[in-house]
Design goal:
By secondary structure, the protein is α+β, with helices and mostly antiparallel strands. It is built from nine helices and 20 strands.
């Protein structure tokens, strides 16, 4: 795709949609949207007020799909059991280990109509950049432009760069970046500042973020490092200065889970969706058998297998095997 060095690639996969932003023929951002039925940010729905959370300030509402959301602020006079029109301002999330975090909602404007909120394809179209949709029968353009390497970084939380590395740790409170490497502190911090900025954009990381740089005693050095971060940070956010212990905090508006939060939430789900992508691209004929770890087999929903059969024109079966690692599914 030499003629597509800048813009979005989009792939409507089975169970998830994927997007890859290419800038100057290099991967600049990846996005993943799972087909989990959760309300998207920007959706306007009629919800049932279930109970108060903080008296007079916030409450829990039940969305049409049965999921709960935190409503704040709480409209005056809203009685439990009544209906209220809300807008989803942050989608629900699943933290590492399976802990669910409710969506956040606000009262919708009086004239707001019901809507589902923009999906991934609509969001990347709204960027104004070119969008090219790719398909399984074509070459793996995602793979050719660094998709698999970026996904591995997001799953592992480790980002290597020349002279050092970043370790991204997800906590309920914030995403933490730890900077490590053999270089002198100032040189390592300068290189890391650029890589942190690029990583925040590449993996759609927002909300509360902390960066633990090497300790820099000189104020001028700390200022130089933050200037490098600012030069490469293209997302809308605010940051503090780097303090004397090397810590900088960044805050950006969070409307959905980041790519690392999606990919670190459930390893079996990741393996199932990866295998479905590989199976859809398989050029074999006749019946298809997916040999997988039992935990992965449990994530291969019947609707996914039916869609795989429809797309490939091949009957599909699943064989759970305890001797196969989670990430080692086979296509036969």
């Amino acid at each position: 795709m030499a003629d597509f060095a800048n813009g979005w690639l989009y792939e409507a996969g089975i169970g998830e949609s994927r997007a890859l932003l290419i800038e100057n023929d290099e991967p600049a951002q990846i996005r993943i949207e799972r087909s989990d039925g959760r309300a998207r940010a920007g959706a306007v729905v009629d919800a049932k007020f279930t109970r108060q959370w903080v008296a007079g300030r916030s409450g829990i509402v039940t969305l049409p799909d049965g999921q709960e959301a935190l409503l704040q602020p709480l409209p005056k006079g809203l009685a439990e059991g009544s209906m209220v029109r809300v807008v989803i301002v942050r989608a629900a999330m699943t933290e590492r280990g399976g802990q669910a975090k409710r969506a956040k909602a606000q009262p919708a404007d009086a004239d707001s109509g019901l809507c589902e909120g923009p999906d991934l394809l609509a969001e990347i179209h709204a960027s104004g950049l070119p969008v090219k949709q790719v398909h399984a029968h074509e070459a793996d353009y995602f793979g050719q432009h660094g998709w698999h390497e970026a996904v591995e970084q997001a799953e592992s939380g480790r980002i290597d760069f020349e002279g050092g590395s970043l370790l991204v740790s997800l906590t309920p409170a914030m995403a933490l970046f730890d900077v490590d490497g053999p270089l002198a502190s100032f040189e390592l911090a300068k290189r890391a500042a650029k890589e942190v900025a690029l990583a925040l954009v590449r993996f759609d990381i927002s909300g509360n973020i902390g960066v633990d740089f090497p300790t820099l005693q000189a104020k001028a050095e700390r200022a130089a490092v933050t200037a490098i971060f600012d030069d490469h940070m293209t997302a809308n956010c605010e940051r503090t200065a780097i303090n004397g212990f090397g810590f900088m905090q960044i805050v950006g508006r969070k409307v959905r889970p980041s790519v690392p939060e999606i990919l670190q939430a459930n390893r079996s789900v990741n393996a199932a969706l990866k295998l479905l992508r590989q199976a859809e691209r398989d050029r074999g004929t006749g019946a298809m058998r997916l040999e997988v770890h039992p935990a992965v087999a449990n994530k291969l929903q019947p609707s996914m297998l039916e869609e795989l059969a429809r797309r490939t024109g091949r009957p599909v079966s699943v064989e759970p095997r305890g001797d196969i690692p989670i990430d080692g599914g086979l296509i036969g």
